[in-house]
Amino acid sequence: MGVDIRHYQDRKDIYLRLLVKLTNYTFTQIVLKMLFMSCTNRPPLSLSRMIQKMKLPRRENKTAMVVGTITDDVRIQEVPKLKVCALRVTSQAHSCILKAGSKILTFNQLALAFPKGCRTIPLSSPRKGREVYRHFGTAPHSGSRL
Prior knowledge:
Blueprint: H1 14-23, H2 26-35, E1 45-46, H3 47-54, E2 63-71, E3 83-89, H4 91-99, E4 103-105, H5 107-113, E5 120-123
């Protein structure tokens, strides 16, 4: 009867799916998959983690792409000049990024500038960083090794 089929997971944004079909680039397929993820699988990325990931070798002069939220980190004293594309940026992180002379792009601007996704680095936060994952697993002192 189809009663047990979960329809809330099936995203039906026909315009995004059409964009992937028309362009036929793996970059657009990756972005589509990340856009259709649930909120728990799209955790916010801190500004410090984004800076740390963009300091790796061969990532200078590239655009950091975050399908999610970029949040501020008060431990960061100075932000290097970056080019960032994100769905959402908090107001504190927005001011820190712009103060450093960086540029914040929307996904529309990113699609016009880099349609094939060249010179972009997709970034995401660790999905198991949520507090609920501390409670998963076997009970303490259960003797089970699983």
